[in-house]
Amino acid sequence: MPSPKLVPLVLTDDERRTLTGWVRRRTTARAQIVLACAGGGSIASVAAELGVSRNMVSKWRSRFLRDRLEGLSDEPRPGRPRTVTDEQVELVITRTLEERGPGQDTHWSTRSMAAATGLSQTAVSRIWRAFGLKPHLVQTWKLSTDPKFIEKVRDIVGLYLDPPAKALVLCVDEKSQIQALNRTAPCLPILPTTPARRTHDYVRNGTTSLFAAFETGSGSVIAQPYRQHRHQEFIRFLKLIDGAVPKDLDLHLVLDNYATHKTPEVRKWLLRHPRFQLRFTPTSASWMNLVERWFAELTRRKLRRSAHRSVTELEADLRRWTNEWNRNPRPFVWTKTADEILDTLAAYCQRINNSGH
């Protein structure tokens, strides 16, 4: 039997303004469901769009049609009556989202919000946890100003998602200024109830740079440490790659815009080796180079807690760790399409423009 035709959901201007405000302040999912249904979406399409169940969409759609805005409030529950009202919750959320902290503070704390609203610190903490608010945290971001940003994103993502036949895609970069650090006293091992411990101070024993080429298909790595990272070392590393990869394969290298990669000497070498094709990431977009993900693994699993008495010892350790990685390499699978990346950035730019700051 076909499902019955849905009763149209039509909003007044006041209801639409109220729901739009609620999307940011309270009953977020419920308000989103009603707004999406009012836009003509079916129960199935709204559920898929918002990532909720069909039963949830049907429930709040029906309650809104029956009781309008009042239907989106929680129904009375048994037990002790609430001591914090909806108005107080809304006040905490609104001030958290729209105001800075008291005086010259840059953000709210539970204590300052409790003093400003007359609630207890525990109540403020519960409200923030319920709505996922963390005023003490801040994340950094940077937008690329590369005039060819879109073209480069499509080019590199295309290499990751659909690599050319008879070719390898290598993500290449240098991890520079790796320090050979040694602690001033031996590290103490982990014990039950006690983490491993080491001295706060250390001795610097020199630095090295690690050139690495991460093969996107298999996850294997070609890596070589050098004491400097000039164009001379970059050409030596290109020669190392040339000798390690079978001659019948073309090579597509994803690199950043570091000046060492674009010197006249490098260009001359590339003209004599036409199987090398360099693809440059947009400026300020190192997140597009998968070798950075491998460098993160190297830092987390080896460098952060290692001690080295000399640069020679550090370089030998880097080679051993790379060889061990290549015994069982793990590729990092790129999943986002270029359109998805560009849509996400466009939405983020829109949020910035509308933030009022």
SSE topology sketch:
Elements lengths: L12 H13 L2 H11 L4 H8 L3 H14 L18 H13 L11 H8 L3 H10 L18 H13 L5 E17 L18 E14 L5 E6 L4 H14 L5 E6 L8 H8 L4 E5 L10 H11 L9 H17 L10 H16 L4
Parallel strand pairs: 1-4, 4-5
Antiparallel strand pairs: 1-2, 2-3
Helix pairs in contact: 1-2, 2-3, 2-4, 3-4, 6-7, 8-13
Which value, in Å, is the CA radius of gyration? Answer: 28 Å
Order of helices and strands: HHHHHHHHEEEHEHEHHH
What's the total helix number? 13
Helix-and-strand structural type: alpha/beta
What percent of residues are in strands?
5-15%
Major sheet: arrangement of strands: 3-2-1-4-5
- Fraction in helix: 40-55%
How many strands, which pairing sense, and closed or not: the largest β-sheet? 5 strands, mixed
The fold-level CATH name of the largest domain is Nucleotidyltransferase, domain 5
Summarize the structure in words.
The structure is a single chain. The longest helix has 17 residues, at 311-327. The protein has three domains: 13-72; 89-130; 153-189 and 196-339, Nucleotidyltransferase, domain 5 (2-Layer Sandwich). Strand 4, helix 10 (264-271) and strand 5 (276-280) form a beta-alpha-beta unit. Strands 3-2-1-4-5 form a five-stranded mixed β-sheet, with helices on both faces. The protein has helices spanning 13-25, 28-38, 43-50, 54-67, 86-98, 110-117, 121-130, 149-161, 231-244, 264-271, 291-301, 311-327, 338-353; strands at residues 167-183, 202-215, 221-226, 250-255, 276-280. It is α/β, with parallel strands linked by helices.
